[in-house]
Amino acid sequence: MKSKYLKNLKYDLPAGLVVFLVALPLCLGISLASGAPFFSGIIAGVIGGIVIGALSNSQLSVSGPAAGLVAIIISAISTLGTFEAFLLAVVLAGAFQVVLGFLKAGVLAYYFPSNVIKGMLSGIGIIIILKQIPHALGYDVEGFNEMTNFIKEDGSTAFGSLFSAFDHISLGATLICFIALGIIIAFESPKLKAISKLVPGGLVAVVVSVLVSELIFKSIPSLQIEQEHLVNVPVANSFNEVLGLFTFPDFSKILDSQIWIVALTITAVASIETLLCIEAVDQLDPQKRFTNNNRELVAQGIGNISSGLIGGLPITSVIVRSSANLNANAKTKVSTIFHGVLLFASVLLIPTILNKIPLSSLAAILIFTGYKLAKPSIFKEMFSNGKYQWKPFVVTVASVVIFDLLIGVGVGLAFSVYYILKGNFKNSFFYQKSEDGPIRMVLSEEVSFLNKANIKESLEAVPKNSSIIIDATNSTYIDFDVLQGIKEFVDYKSKYRNIECQLIGFDKQFSLTEVPAAAH
Length: 520
Fold this sequence. Notes:
Blueprint: H1 2-7, H2 9-34, H3 38-55, E1 63-64, H4 70-80, H5 83-102, H6 114-136, H7 158-163, H8 171-187, H9 193-198, H10 201-215, H11 239-243, H12 257-284, H13 293-309, E2 316-317, H14 319-327, H15 334-349, H16 351-354, H17 359-373, H18 376-384, H19 387-402, H20 405-426, E3 429-432, E4 439-443, E5 446-447, H21 452-460, E6 467-471, E7 477-478, H22 480-496, E8 500-504, H23 506-509
Parallel strand pairs: 4-6, 5-7, 6-8
Antiparallel strand pairs: 1-2, 3-4
Helix pairs in contact: 2-3, 2-10, 2-14, 2-15, 2-17, 3-13, 3-15, 4-12, 5-12, 5-13, 6-17, 6-19, 6-20, 8-10, 8-17, 12-13, 12-14, 18-19, 19-20, 21-22
Keywords: Membrane, Transmembrane, Transmembrane helix
GO cellular component, one term: membrane
GO biological process, one term: transmembrane transport
């Protein structure tokens, strides 16, 4: 096993460097978007790389703080009151993930409809974009870090607060955002694809933003970017000061029910996002290696426990970093672990350089990330898949944006289940009327109790003095309640209305003589 890792170092170390360059601005940007300390995003990236990278059996997946959890983090910090209380929820979420892994719950992710997952991610993308517009304009006030949904508790809307940012525009910060966004978009073009595989556009955008701010804007008073519009990572000058950078959970809140609700929410969303990402990475792996989902949940759980204990944000497997790892030709998990080591070294050795990064350049990265989560092609794809796909998708997006992520996913799931039941309700049998012959009711392969109401309604609608053929030839399963309803119709109701009944296929395996009819 060791020889495999040593043999691939020539691929994995350069790939780890590329992933580090992608992850650094994202860790800072997600901290900003979450309203959390910048150091918390770095901690999550380090733990995601070193701890989860070592424990996971996925060779290419990369974990860290995820944009998909931003809305939950903002809401949770606001609800719980302190960052220390939120960290306790992260630790508990990690413990729940470990339990889920040992209970072999990795299969649960397959039961979430893709339209709801895509709706959730698109809704998160829209929230991220809305929340980053003030930072893009240089209006860096804490109030926008609480903008988790459209309707606020006081009845006002987020858009009303958002528009106030246009009254406080910082010209220098806004120009930096446009420059950074232009670079990121340019690096997505086919002409620069080869370069972007080596040097990610987000990193180039941050470097150029720092150079423009330091070398050009500082000499122009109207464009100069003030300190409050820059990253503010703590600078440690001694070992004791390094220890002081870490924040620890407030275990005195362990009995607070809100803590447990937040923990369960993080568990659900982080686990689903991780399992979906792992599935995608396995499909893209050139060597087609298989990741054990249950082991992945345990690894993620231990990672989240570790992150929460020392002040880090919650962690998931992240498709952006994992894709960068794949594109950089990584072969084993060494690249993931190496990127975590580089993240830790950067915050210890070059914090003063990090503190020259304009917040508006990170806002540009997050705006583009939000766009990729909610880009028009996703909506177009969902609409092309039919109403049973796009209706739950649209409802999920709207609910996530208007209310919050948990309510949005719940409403989306409810709509998705409704359309599944509706389709099942309609497709339980084939019903054909004939002007000069008997009505035919051909039952489907499986007829569950969910079809009972529709079959009963259809039998009730059979006209008096007519005839009907009920065909179970193709059926392999018919629910007992459905058989009881058919027997009741054949033995009693049809005789009262002079309806002639012919049964086909029931003698094969469904004996109606053994089914007691309902009492009258």
